[in-house]
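Onboarding guide, step 5: your first structure request.
Type a short instruction followed by the sequence, for example:

Predict the 3D structure of this protein.
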Amino acid sequence: MPDHPYQVMKKDTVLNVGFDDTDSPKGMCTTFLAYKIVDLLHKQKTEFLDFPRLVRFNPNIPWKTRGNGAVSFKIKTKNPPKIKNQIKNLVTKHSDTENGANPGLVFFESDAIPKEFTQFSKLALWQLINRNIAKKFAKKNNLEIHYQGNGQGLIGAIGAIGYDFDDHTLELLSYRKKPKFGKERKISIQSVKDMQEKTFPDTFNSFDTKKGRVLITPHGPDPVFYGVRGENADSLIHATEILQTTEKLDGYMIFKSNQGTGDHLKNELNSDSMKPYASGKLSGIVSSNPKILKGGHVFFKVSSNDHEFWCAVYKPTGMTAVASNLLKGDKIKIGGGVRKASKNFPRMINLEFLDVVSLVTNTTLSNPECKRCGKKMKSKGLNQGFQCIRCGKKAPKKTRIKISRNIKKQLYLPGMSAHRHLTRPLQRIGTVNDSTQFDQSLSWFCVYRN
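The system replies with structure tokens like these:
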């Protein structure tokens, strides 16, 4: 009951918060800022309605930092102005603006997310969106926005709030203490191998067994020590219990993410949508035999809907052997990012996957075989046919024989070390994670009190 008959109880407000571009190539991390904000809100007993979201947008944007990820979260609060002010202060404090960060922060008070947000978010997945479009969107939809620099971060901030998860994964990001920022990360390689084996298939892309390479630790100066990706929170927390390091870490947070979903390649590429830096997929017929250029990279053309598209498969992907065995007439599905035209090359698609649908029969002409002797006949001269040197049997012309193909009708992906954040790994093909169990009792956030 209110203390005074005229006192009105404050109602809970659902507040969506989105932010992006707080980091730079020299340091900081947008997810670490989220970790700091959540820590502050947790101490104030703020109610979270879902996992914090880590949404990866178009990976082909040339000025992105690392994985082009933006963060958002949804909370209930009786005091939105206070929460907003606290978040604004933290964004200002932890954004690396001195080294080129252009942070954007968006507040949206509503439990329901309008379809306009979702449409904007879908475009940001595969297109290049001008920051002025984001500013116009914010004005049209009466959003409360704050930004520094040129406001580039507003695109991801709006998109992260509006992202509609048809499929999702989770990522547990573990953070370092400040004195360790920029220093070498030391983790037991054997423990990473063990973790992958014990948590498969509920985690993915942790250790590349072919290259003997740990994939959960970044290499830059940012505050992340490791990130484990998977399907559910229990498996991620179990993974942290297996991993071994001598470094005392600060804590961890689990994000809901579109990593490992391949969502950026759902858009159909065509002559109109194939603009520089776009992402997408198309089906077509191989229209030129592959060329292998210096460095081992493979280039070929695909015909689709009466248009030809150049395709490139680069050696680091590990798919060049497959691409080099394609032939004119093969039917394929491909996905990737559009590279703008250069002095030496036209606009082309840099492949992120290659799905072989059907293969043409590969044949060659050969001297006929003597059925009696089992030997190849010899030519008698120009236009004089062929004759067996053993028994004298003759044949008028060469025969066409079938050559086996060194390629199969199947989906080919880059090697694990060449996967992008959004690449759908083989173990997730056919998997859709469309429901999330979330409540305050989950151990989705933890600060180690050492």
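Each response can be followed by summary notes, for example: The mean pLDDT is 91.
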